[in-house]
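testing teh design pipeline on a random one, pls ignore if ur not involved
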């Protein structure tokens, strides 16, 4: 279909899970991709796979909470591929878990730094490049946790992810006149390394799956398809939204 032909995208958290699946899908749809993550070997493998699809990719290792990394990602997209049209700010962490009173200040700050500050820094440098391009799509990776449900032990994660909804709305209203859209994906359980760290026994996984009308969790490819919708011209009148892709878990009552 090539819905992203001649587009340039940044995908963070691309070494595994949703980020990896999205980078590959963007490439299949014709985009050139700058992929970011912490594990150089996995990023190198991803670049090889993208190039095998007939597209182009550049890998950059780094910490999304580091302002210089956010700058370098955009600079690379502009210098190597000519501009920036799409940014999927996906990298995140569960962070320190436990009852709120037991979470350390450093644990709280590290979670917010990755999930919220990293998204802010990404958008801060992505926006000027998109303005120069005449428009674009910024997408943040969030969750129903902290939006429609609270889960025990996930205070830092829920707070940092829920804050992305407000950030998204402000970016949307500030930049809509310039042709830039901003949206957030709210996903549920996904079969990723992060997801498996929570559903770490067959019994826990079975319980989690029972909470869903579909009686299963998502694959990364399923979530990536929804990210593609927000990245592509199929969603030209969608901005400031929190797109729920959670398999119905947030509305299901057994």
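output:
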């Amino acid at each position: 279909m090539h819905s992203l032909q001649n587009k340039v995208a940044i995908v963070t958290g691309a070494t595994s899970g949703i980020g990896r699946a999205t980078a590959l899908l963007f490439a299949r749809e014709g985009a050139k991709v700058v992929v970011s993550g912490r594990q150089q070997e996995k990023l190198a493998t991803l670049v090889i796979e993208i190039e095998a699809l007939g597209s182009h990719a550049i890998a950059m290792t780094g910490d999304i909470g580091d302002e210089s990394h956010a700058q370098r990602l955009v600079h690379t997209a502009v210098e190597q591929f000519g501009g920036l049209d799409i940014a999927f700010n996906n990298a995140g962490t569960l962070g320190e878990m436990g009852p709120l009173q037991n979470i350390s200040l450093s644990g709280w700050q590290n979670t917010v730094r990755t999930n919220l500050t990293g998204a802010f820094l990404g958008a801060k440098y992505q926006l000027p490049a998109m303005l120069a391009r005449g428009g674009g799509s910024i997408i943040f990776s969030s969750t129903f946790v902290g939006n429609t449900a609270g889960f025990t032990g996930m205070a830092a994660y829920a707070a940092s992810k829920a804050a992305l909804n407000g950030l998204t709305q402000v970016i949307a209203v500030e930049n809509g006149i310039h042709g830039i859209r901003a949206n957030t994906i709210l996903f549920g359980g996904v079969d990723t390394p992060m997801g498996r760290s929570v559903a770490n026994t067959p019994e826990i996984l079975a319980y989690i799956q029972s909470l869903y009308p579909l009686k299963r969790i998502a694959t990364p490819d399923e979530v990536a398809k929804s990210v593609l919708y927000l990245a592509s011209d199929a969603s030209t009148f969608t901005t400031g939204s929190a797109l729920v892709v959670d398999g119905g878990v947030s509305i299901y009552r057994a």
